Automatic annotation (TrEMBL):
Protein name (record): histidine kinase
Residue runs in coiled coils: none
Ranges that cross the membrane: 180-203
Keyword annotations: Kinase, Membrane, Phosphoprotein, Transferase, Transmembrane, Transmembrane helix, Two-component regulatory system
Record organism: Actinokineospora bangkokensis
């Protein structure tokens, strides 16, 4: 039985409970039925029988009294009780016959004897006496009537004794049925209490105790004793659960071993990464100093050569010198951009809450010269949300996006529109322009470092700007993408979206944009 499953145990227990409850209900129902039968016998038969016998006795006594009074007084009004009592007599006899139908034969025989004695008294004494008195013959001997009526009275007494005995037996049966009902209820309650105690004991031994042991062993494993095997005796479900937990423990132990090995490898890789970062730092230092200095010298000496010996050089030499100076300058710009790109996320500054409108304003001020030169118009909402991050980096995002919008312009003056709206826990910023646009197939390529869609002669630059924007936005917990779903009817220009996390409850963003004026415009 110790290996029985909980389902089997619960099924057996359910059957036992149903059987016990069914037996208890049947026993109580039988006891109540017996009680009702005894009560019905007492109230519907025995009691009314006694009452009807008394009513019959009263009716006969009234008849005997009426006849005797009429015989003595010769007054007709004394016959009225005699006549009325005859009706009551017949009613009482009829009721007694109905009540005694299911009782003893002796009681029915006593009733028959009463009826015969009364009829004999009436025929041999009452009716002749009444007739004689009416004729004026007063010689009737009342003693003859007394003898006849005493025989009827004796039969009535016997009937009364029968009725009382029946009532006493019915009362005893009622008391016995009530006692049996009480005893049945007590036994039923005792059985139910015993069943509850037994169920509690079985529940504790079959479920609670094994689960407690399983819990203790699981806590041992949770406390770090991963080598401890989880084994519990008990019902099938609990042993299966223990086996599953032990399988999970074994898997965790294996994963822990793998994790430790991986951590060891990560420690090695971390050391390599630190060494690589140190080398990268060294390279950044060299690039910012040792590499730029020779480039500056190349550019300076080439320019000096052009100034001093320009009149002695032909046009090709002058052109070659220009190529060298331009290459040196572009190399310096590329090195500076690479340094800035590599520093994003490594040399972290202070993160503060800043008004994104101030970031747009600063970006436009930084681009004041080119904005004024091209006649560009930059629109942005008067009120924009607070964002959290490094101010120089976030300013660089807006500056690169607005600068690209101005750089890659069409024939008409650039028009840049900056908007923002909330999307759940992010602010979605949009920078849209009316420039030459970007084909959808290049939506990912434009964010890759050094990827250019146009030649250096057509549009200057190093191809790092959008890659820098992606790195900065992702460093601040957002994402950036090119909108490729714009309406084909209005497909001119470029629309770029990027998100930044919401830092707090913000006021509603103004829907009407205003023109951002560059410094000195």
């Amino acid at each position: 039985m110790s290996r029985w499953s909980l389902r089997r145990r619960s099924a057996v227990a359910s059957v036992a409970v149903v059987a016990i409850f069914g037996a208890a209900i049947i026993a109580v129902a039988l006891a109540i039925s017996n009680l009702n039968s005894a009560r019905a016998r007492l109230l519907d038969q025995a009691g009314p029988t006694v009452i009807a016998a008394e009513q019959l006795t009263t009716a006969l006594v009234d008849q005997e009294t009426g006849v005797r009074g009429f015989a003595i007084t010769v007054r007709p009004e004394f016959l009225q009780p005699y006549q009325d009592a005859q009706g009551r007599e017949r009613a009482a006899v009829a009721q007694l016959r109905d009540l005694l139908a299911g009782q003893s034969a002796k009681a029915r025989a006593d009733l028959d004897e009463v009826v015969r004695a009364v009829d004999d008294w009436r025929v041999r004494y009452a009716e002749p006496t009444i007739s004689s008195v009416r004729r004026g013959d007063l010689s009737t001997d009342v003693r003859d009537g007394k003898v006849l009526f005493d025989r009827a009275r004796a039969a009535l007494n016997a009937l009364g004794v029968d009725a009382e005995e029946e009532r006493a037996a019915s009362r005893a049966e009622l008391n016995s049925a009530a006692s049996a009902l009480v005893a049945t209820c007590v036994v039923t309650l005792g059985a139910l209490l015993l069943l509850v105690v037994l169920a509690a004991v079985l529940l504790r031994s079959a479920v609670v105790a094994p689960l407690s042991r399983l819990t203790a062993q699981v806590r041992q494993v949770a406390g770090g004793e991963f080598e401890h095997r989880v084994e519990v005796a008990g019902p099938e479900e609990i042993t299966d659960l223990a086996a599953d937990v032990d399988v999970m423990r074994s898997r965790i132990l294996h994963e822990l071993s793998v994790l430790r090995s991986t951590n060891a490898e990560l420690d090695v890789l971390s050391a390599d990464l630190k060494r690589s970062n140190a080398e990268l730092e060294q390279f950044a230092y060299v690039a910012s100093h040792d590499l730029q200095e020779p480039l500056r010298k190349v550019a300076s000496f080439c320019q000096l050569l052009e100034r001093r010996y320009g009149d002695k050089l032909d046009d090709n030499a002058t052109q070659y010198i220009g190529f060298a100076v331009d290459g040196a300058r572009r190399m310096q710009v590329l090195i500076n951009d690479l340094l800035a790109f590599s520093r994003v996320g490594r040399h972290t500054g202070k993160h503060v809450d800043v008004d994104s409108r101030q970031l747009v304003d600063q970006a436009v001020r930084n681009l004041a010269a080119v904005v004024e030169e091209t006649g560009a118009v930059v629109d942005a909402p008067a009120e924009m949300p607070l964002v959290r991050g490094e101010v120089p980096l976030l300013t660089a995002v807006f500056q690169n996006l607005i600068g690209n919008a101005v750089k890659f312009r069409a024939d008409e003056p650039p028009h840049v529109r900056v908007t923002v709206e909330r999307d759940g826990e992010d602010w979605v910023f949009t920078v849209a322009d009316n420039g030459i646009g970007v084909e959808p197939q290049f939506a990912e390529r434009v964010f890759v470092i050094f990827q250019r869609l146009h030649g250096k002669d057509a549009y200057p630059g190093t191809g790092i700007g959008l890659a820098m924007c992606r790195k900065i936005v992702e460093f601040h917990g957002g994402r950036i993408w090119l909108d490729t779903d714009r309406d084909q009817a209005d497909s001119r220009g470029t629309t770029i979206h990027f998100t930044l996390p919401v830092v707090a409850e913000q006021p509603a963003v103004a829907e009407q944009p205003e023109v951002v004026e560059p410094a000195g415009a």
